[in-house]
Each structure stands twice: as C-alpha cells, then as structure tokens.
Amino acid sequence: MFCYQCEQTYRSDHANGCATSRGVCGKDAQTADLQDLLIHELKGIACYAKRARELGSVDNTVGGFLLYGLFTTLTNVNFNAARFTALLQEAATLRERTQQRCTAAAQQQGVAVGPLAAPAHFVPASELGQLLQQAPQAAITVGLQEVGEDVVGLRALILYGLKGVAAYAHHARMLGQESDEVYAGVEATLALLAAEPTDADQLLEEALALGRLNLKVMELLDAGNTGSFGAPQPTQVRLTPVIGKAILVSGHDLADLAALLEQTAGMGINIYTHGEMLPAHSYPELHKYPHLVGNYGGAWQDQQQEFAAFPGPILMTSNCIIEPQPRYRQRIFTTGPVGWPGVRHLENHNFSPLIQAAQALPGFTTVPEQEEQITIGFGRSAVLGVADSVIEAVKAGAIRHFFLVGGCDGAAPGRNYYTDFVRQTPQDTVVLTLGCNKYRFNREPLGSIGEIPRLLDMGQCNDSYSAIKVATALAEAFECDLNELPLSLVVSWFEQKAAAVLLTLLALGIRNIRLGPSLPAFITPTVLERLTAAFGLRPITSAEADLAAALGRSAA
Ligand code: SF4
Ligand code: SF3
Hints:
The protein is α/β, with parallel strands linked by helices and 556 residues long. 45% of the residues lie in helices and 11% in strands. The chain has helices at residues 29-54, 60-72, 81-109, 128-134, 144-174, 180-194, 200-229, 254-264, 284-287, 303-309, 352-360, 380-385, 387-395, 416-424, 464-477, 496-507, 525-535, 543-550, and strands at 235-238, 245-250, 269-273, 292-295, 314-316, 332-335, 344-346, 373-376, 401-407, 429-433, 448-449, 452-453, 455-457, 487-492, 514-516, 538-539. Helix 14 (416-424) links the parallel strand 9 and strand 10. 51% of the residues are buried. The structure holds iron/sulfur cluster and FE4-S3 cluster.
C-alpha cells in the first residue's frame, strides 16, 4: 500500500506516506490496495461515460456510482475490504454497461469510441490474490520515476480534491440535488487522471477548475440542506444529556438523521448529535423534533472514549469513523458509504435494528445538575440577516477584523494552535467557524460586540458555501475585492473535503490563507512555492505571529 491522502499520514525525515501493512488511520494494506483498484475502475467507467456524453448519451446513475465509489475511499470512511471486493465487481459490470452504451452511441453517429486511456480496458480479477497483484498499476505513485514527484503530487491533489467534491455531491444527491454539469465535471476529471497527464501547468489549471466545480457542488448541497430542512437559525443546543433512552448520530448526512428522527418520533428515545452532526439542531425542520435533545461529545478523534461512555447505540453516517472498541462494537452501526468489518451496516434508511438496540440499552439514568448550552446556527441567511448591523459595526470601528478559523480536527498535537489563536483574538474581532475543528474552541466565552456574538458557528465543513456567500456579500457591501476585506482565513485540514474547499478558495482568488497543522505531504516544495507565489498560501506558524500578521502589526 501507499497512501498519503490525509494530514495524519506517516511522516519521517526520509519519506512521507503510509506504506507498511497498516496506515496511521487503521486502514490495512489490503483495503488500501482495493481502494486504489476501485479508483482505477472508476477512471475506466468515467472514460466511457465522458465519451458517451460527448456523443449525446447521458446516464446520470453512472455519476451517482462514481460519487459513492469515490466517497468510500475518503479517510475514515470505509475500512471493510469485503465491501471493496464487492464494489470492484459492481464497477466492472457498470463499466461494461457504459462501454456498450458508448459503443452504440458512436455507431449511431458513425464515429470511433476511442482511443481511451488504459483504465478503460482494465478488467479486475475475480480472485482476491490476483486482484491484489493488479494493485500496483493502480497506485497513486504510478509513473513516479518517469514524471517526478511534482507531477505525481499534482495528480494526487486533483484526485484527493475530487474525492472531497464527490462526498459533497453525494450528500447533495441524497437530498435530491443533482446536476449534469457536476456529473460531467466528475467524469471529465476522472478521465483526465486516467490519461496520466504530465504537464504541471495543466495539472495546476485543472486543480483550480475542480475548485470551481466544487463551488457549484457546495451550492447544490446548500440548496439540498436548506430546501429540505429550512435555513439554519441561531439556536441554543444543550451539551448535557437528559434522562432516557438514547441514540447518538455522527457524521455529516442530514438526510439519514431526518429519517431516523421520523422513525423514532413518539417512541421515548432521545437523539443526540455527535461531531459534524451538531449543526443539525439549527435547521427548523430537524429542530422541530422534540426528541432531538442535544449534542454529545466533541470531534471525531475522541470517539473511542465518548462512544464507550454513551449508554445507547451509535449511528455513523459518514466520516470520520475510527476503529470501534470492544466496549461499543456491538452497538455501533454504519450506513451509506461507511463501513468497518464486523460492524452492522444499515441500508435504505432501515433503522429498525438501531432502534431496537436503543430500546434494549439503559440510556441515561443520571445527568449532571448543571445544564450546559452553546449557540450555533449562523449560516449565511442568519449572518446576512444582520448584515446591516455588521456593516455598521465595521464602519464604526467596533469590528476591526474577521477571522475564519475552520476546517477539520484531528489528533496532531500542533492543533492546539487553533484554540490558542481563537482565545487570543482581540475583543474587536469576530471569529467565523465551520467544520469539526470548532470543538477546540466552541465553548470559549468570547462574548459579543453589541448584538453580534464574537464566535459565529456557520455549520459543518459541508457549509463552506455559507462562508463564501457571506464574504462575497461583505465585499459587495464595501465595494471591494474579497482580498481587500478585513478577513483572514486560518484553515485546518485533515481529509479530502478540506482539499476540495481549499481548491475552491484558491479558484476564487483568495490570497494569504494560512494552512495547518502541517501541509499536505503530496504538495511538494516546488508546488508549494508556486501556490505561495500565486496565492500567498502559507503554513501556520504560531498563533501570536499569525494573529499579528493578520492584524498588520508585528508579534510582541
Ligand atoms: Fe495514512 Fe491517511 Fe491514507 Fe490512512 S488515509 S492510510 S492515515 S494517509
Ligand atoms: Fe471533520 Fe472528519 Fe474534516 Fe467535516 S468529521 S470536517 S475531519
């Protein structure tokens, strides 16, 4: 195996990347190789789907499979080798079907189908041992000796960004939001990677084009979320449990949560959000369920302790799952793209086994005396609803600067930077946040500036669109460029959705983003130099120095 797609990848003085029998995340070599092969097959399907689309034959169920397949390979999503073996066969069948459709369309028009790149002709072995022997041709480092690490790294940037795009597009699709443009873009990007391009300039351009596609995808997801559940509203969420039976829901998929809330209505089971599911409380059509009682725990990396202590079953709807411990292995369930060997998987919103488990378990029998709450729900419509006060406060000098401190959380010790940074932001500044990184500081008593809270939680990483809309609206109000706003972006990355959002921010021309806690291992020094020259992208340093630089003064 070789994988360097996430922030926690193995790093040493000599080489970066998880390359032994198990990655730092717990992904074993067999699963990693099967994931590489799945990507290879998806590229093959995409070659035919793209060509067929050019010839006027479109089937967007293919796009749906591409999104789902890519999503299963994100960090901390699916660790189940058996699931990948099955997906490889499904992909082979779909490739044949797409090839036939493409051939028919070409014959009708009297033109040739090809030539198409090698993945279009790849046939997976039916036996696991032979399948694993095929894996080297699908490795991310293919061609490294010939094309060098910059080109391989840029291809990786595009593939990993595409995985993030696919995850967002899959969530949007689950809420009925699809688009030809997005499916065509996903197919074209996979087909491009299948052709193994070698021109670094072209690859960089393609990466930015993918960032633009991701903006469209995030817009679709926003429409899916707000169209289905209403616009998020500022909402108080209880952080302490209540007495009674309980189910914990983690991950990002609001459609899964909505289905579970409906199925458990009136049953006397309380539903708690975990991790990136926290923003669910701010959507009117989810908040309306009285048994959606609160949020439990923090970001994904603490789940082994938190799930063990939770007195009910747990549902994992997307990333980030980590190895279930014996203390809760019998009461954790996966759904959608998520998987772990031996863990029960629920499909098609059939949550009966989860509900039965909740009824059989004690739930909370004691709770803390002191109730704790936080306020969330500052999506674009809530913030833009008070835009006049915000603009006034800026003009009057009451708000000097905005910081967007958001993205992924993780276990790396350097991530304390984000807590320190937010704690040290001056009283006349506002912090916008999104993603699971917020758990590092969302209980901090930052206070408010007049009516405006100093910490505005904009939602999941899936809600980055909201932040972009707010920034764009402020730039319009102040009649300036996005880069002229008193706004600094301090981004925390861990997995591939953050790579997709970063590409979108760069594609929008946003400069001087600080990225941490460490830079992606697939971004080589040469590529970083180019990104720094073009966009001022740079690694975080210390909270003090970065704050001082953002505020235009030197660190004390
Ligand atoms: Fe390593 Fe991250 Fe890949 Fe897991 S997902 S194998 S930790 S690089
Ligand atoms: Fe977090 Fe996994 Fe990325 Fe959605 S839950 S931000 S890391």
